[in-house]
Amino acid sequence: xxxxxxxxxxxxxxxxxxxxxxxxxxxxxxxxxxxxxxxxxxxxxxxxxxxxxxxxxxxxxxxxxxxxxxxxxxxxxxxxxxxxxxxxxxxxxxxxxxxxxxxxxxxxxxxxxxxxxxxxxxxxxxxxxxxxxxxxxxxxxxxxxxxxxxxxxxxxxxxxxxxxxxxxxxxxxxxxxxxx
Length: 180
Prior knowledge:
This protein has 180 residues and is mainly α.
């Protein structure tokens, strides 16, 4: 007697076909790239440590690293024709050559803060010093908003001389433009 084989079940599956993937948002793509780069950087770090483990190094003594201001032979640019602008230009030059500091008008190395540089370059003229400080504060507030309450607080809020020196230079331009 011939054996009959069971019929093949040809019913349609009851589950819906998978939906096509949706496009990832920028944030999701950036998160995936960040994760992939973190893994690659970790692998590179381990490879670097393995490849350089046999190299002997001497510890660096920070006292051996000498940092000095720019050479005193650095000449300032052509002077402005107005007294407040000239004072701010000289203060900028003093900060470049003598060094910049925070927390004091003058530090133990002779570096000065923004107001300390203006004061020494004013050479005792308190009116000229006050005008220069007012122009400097105005230049700072133009760039950083009205929430800056004083030149010393702005000076002390920075960890490097780059921004304070730039502001003294901009104040000199502003004073010249105002004819001060």
